[in-house]
Amino acid sequence: MRKSSPYRPVSLFLFVTSLAGVSHAKTDFKVDILPLIESRCLKCHKGPHEENGKMQKPKGDIRLDGAWAFLKGNKETVPVVPKDVTKSGIIQVTTLPKDDDKFMPPEGKGDPLTPDEINKLKTWIIEGADFGGWEGNLDGKPAEAVAPAAKVPLKDREHDLLYQKLAEGLQPPTEETLKKIASGGAQIAALQVGSPLLHVDFLAGVTKCNDESLAALTPLKDNIVHLDLARTEITDAAAKSIVLMPRLTRLDLRKTKITDKGLGQLATAKNLVYLNLFGTEITDAGLASLAQIKTLRNVFLSDTKVTDAGVAKLKASLPKAEIVGNVVITAPAPKPEEMKKGKKAK
């Protein structure tokens, strides 16, 4: 049996004290992150190698034995997307329910990451995923990554400008505030080192997060910009707490009990850019509320009860947004030789 580390609410306070003015050293990849990768991941996720006389390939075509590999991934996922925890595959698979087929590390391959270790990973990613000069295994590194193009001055991206604006005049939460919410089961990280803006999720205890858990975050309402409630037990009642967060830009409600009623309360959101409703009971009626949120740029509606007509109407109301509706997967047509075999069998 694989040991699992129970969630300790006190770890939340220890992790976020840096937000309240306590000095915070930047995460050191070689000291804080690499040991986690080596003990939990490298057995299955390193370059092709011979083992017991057999050639072994990386599981799922995912490698974590080189800095370049962390950022490359495969066709479906990228292990690490700097500054974006929600898109980083390594966070997604290590925070799934332990009985999920995609949970990592698999049973027998290493102990699950503890909440504190997951927080270390998140912090490192949010800080920009700096490898500190570590390159790792360069075998198999794409040619285009070997000699990068000359650096050009980077322009401020739209969302960076938005975060700068949202952070103006905002103070980080106090130590007293953090103590009050430390028992709520949330994991909290500054969006960037020194920033008063916060990313909040319940990935280490989704079944423990309910409407009351969310209400407990109210003292942080002015600081929260990213809120991940995927697979939690929240209901429409949670919308009352969500609408109190004026700086909220990203909201993940995947596989929650949110319905059109709760969605209707979110229509007043002023800065919401990203909304994920995958696997919810949302219908076309709920989309009418979303049409009022003109700041939306990404909306995910797969595996919901919305219709193509409803999605088309929403796209017309939000022309700047990328809206993903229900995806219908059809079986590929049989090849001519397969059809001949079938006729012969008859």
Question: Could you walk me through the main structural features you see in this protein, from its secondary elements to its overall organization?
Answer:
The chain is an alpha/beta fold and 346 residues long. The chain folds into 2 domains: 10-132, no CATH class; 176-324, Ribonuclease Inhibitor (Leucine-rich repeat, LRR (right-handed beta-alpha superhelix), Alpha-Beta Horseshoe), CATH 3.80.10.10. It is 30% helix and 9% strand. The protein is built from 14 helices and 9 strands. The chain has helices spanning 10-16, 29-40, 67-70, 89-94, 115-126, 143-146, 158-167, 175-181, 211-215, 239-242, 260-264, 284-290, 308-317, 336-345, and strands at 49-51, 54-56, 187-190, 198-201, 224-228, 250-252, 274-276, 298-300, 322-324. The strands form 2 sheets. A 7-stranded mixed sheet has the order 3-4-5-6-7-8-9, with helices on both faces. A two-stranded antiparallel sheet has the order 1-2. Helix 12 (284-290) packs parallel to helix 13 (308-317). The protein starts with 9 loop residues before the first helix and ends with a helix.
* Contiguous uncertain segments of 5+ residues: 1-24, 146-155
* Strand and helix order: HHEEHHHHHHEEHEHEHEHEHEH
CATH superfamily of the largest domain: Ribonuclease Inhibitor
Q: What is the third-level CATH name, the topology of the largest domain?
A: Leucine-rich repeat, LRR (right-handed beta-alpha superhelix)
Global mean pLDDT: 81
Overall outline: globular
- Integer-rounded radius of gyration: 22 Å
CATH class of the largest domain: Alpha Beta
Structural class: alpha/beta
Number of helices: 14
Largest sheet: 7 strands, mixed
Strand order of the largest sheet: 3-4-5-6-7-8-9
Helix content: 25-40%
Terminal Cα separation, in Å?
Answer: 49 Å
Strand tally is 9
CATH architectural label of the largest domain:
Alpha-Beta Horseshoe
Q: What number of domains? A: 2
Classify the beta-strand content into a percent band.
5-15%
